[in-house]
Amino acid sequence: MIMKSVAIVLAAGQGKRMGMDCPKQYLLLNGKPVIYYSLKAFEESDIDEIILVVGEGEKEYCEQEIINRYQFKKVMQIVSGGSERYHSVYNGLQVVQNAEYVFIHDGARPFLSKQLIEDLFETVRETKACIAGMPVKDTIKLINQKKQVEKSLDRSKVWQIQTPQVFEYQLVKQAYDKLFEQKISDVTDDAMVVERMTGHAVTLVKASYKNIKITTPEDLEIGECFLANEKTKNDKFEELKRR
Ligand SMILES: Nc1ccn([C@@H]2O[C@H](COP(=O)(O)OP(=O)(O)OP(=O)(O)O)[C@@H](O)[C@H]2O)c(=O)n1
Ligand SMILES: C[C@](O)(CO)[C@H](O)COP(=O)(O)O
């Protein structure tokens, strides 16, 4: 049996912090929906198959306006998400078949690079569990309920965590099955599920500060700037080639 690499792309959130009528994954960035960019990155990578997880009642829209319109050939299934991110991940994991590795990615992170996908592939083959992240740039403090500083952390040991989060399929499936059996709900990423439910070590892969999650309105402005810069670079490159 041929074992595949599958990407589960999450797009079932409501985008409450964005505060717009439309869920943020469908808002436009340089004329294309936010979700388009990460689907395109996976489409052009060594990933074999993409599972898209969407909100209730959004399947038809995604099929027509995203998958068909942009001709994504690797999106094999569209499934409904749940009320929290971890429910949506679990729904995606249930429909995965014959997979060796699973990339779990926030559809709200459009700046996923080809290099990062390759680096994660290389690391997961060695470690079975790895996640994208970057060292924090600010000073980080633990505070108490009165908002007083309790402790300053050694920031050389603190990273901000992104997606993709990549695992051997059996490992992450087993971890999520246990999470649901034990009805645990205080988890905000997949690595936390694997760490707590299996004890397996999760390795960090240095990603990029550009791999932001579109969360609040200013993130859209930042995203537009990134894309405008990319376009300028590409235009200059094309001009140099013509000369
Ligand atoms: N029930 C949920 C919640 C989140 N997500 C997805 O998980 C990613 C990261 O979540 P977040 O930024 O928190 O998105 P939202 O839940 O949409 O945002 P908010 O918390 O502001 O409502 C997004 O791609 C989002 O679509 C999901 O698939 N299902
Ligand atoms: C998984 C994640 O993107 C890592 O930074 C993040 O935790 C998801 O954020 P959420 O707001 O909890 O959905």
Automatic annotation (TrEMBL):
Its EC number is 2.7.7.60. The keyword Nucleotidyltransferase applies. GO terms for molecular function: 2-C-methyl-D-erythritol 4-phosphate cytidylyltransferase activity. Keywords: Isoprene biosynthesis, Nucleotidyltransferase, Transferase. InterPro entries: IspD, IspD/TarI, IspD/TarI_cytidylyltransf_bact, Nucleotide-diphossugar_trans. It holds the Pfam family IspD. The record marks R17, K24 as: Transition state stabilizer. GO terms for biological process: isopentenyl diphosphate biosynthetic process, methylerythritol 4-phosphate pathway. Catalyzes the formation of 4-diphosphocytidyl-2-C-methyl-D-erythritol from CTP and 2-C-methyl-D-erythritol 4-phosphate (MEP). PANTHER family: 2-C-METHYL-D-ERYTHRITOL 4-PHOSPHATE CYTIDYLYLTRANSFERASE, CHLOROPLASTIC. Belongs to the IspD/TarI cytidylyltransferase family. IspD subfamily. This is 2-C-methyl-D-erythritol 4-phosphate cytidylyltransferase. The gene is ispD.
